Predict the 3D structure of the following.
Amino acid sequence: MGELLVRHDDGTLDFVDRLKYSIKSGGENIYPAEIERVLLAHPAVQEAAVVRKRAPRWGEVPVAFVALNHPGCDASVLLQWFQHWLVSYKLPKEIRFIAETEFPRSSTGKIQRHETERIFL
């Protein structure tokens, strides 16, 4: 069905992302939902979307768009947070801060990655 799931040791499954939208960076597949889950677990992050950006050396790299609910947070704080949860090739190469209202959304309120990519990159 075009969806990527992770099977845990106890046999349960977690939805990761749709295969249609992945980032291919240096021969590795990166799924934005995995990066977004880590971002959304940070207490200062209200909303997040990760999209792909063309890069000469790697093909594509992840870029994170973040809306904060705590103004004291910055990119260095989030990059440090990522170090505990993601391998280095999955780290966003850029973190851009936008207002929560700037995220393009579908009629059901879901952030549209393709539109985020088109508008902001």
User: Anything to note?
Assistant: The domain at 3-120 is CATH 3.30.300.30 (GMP Synthetase; Chain A, domain 3). The longest helix spans residues 32-40. DSSP finds three helices and seven strands in the chain.
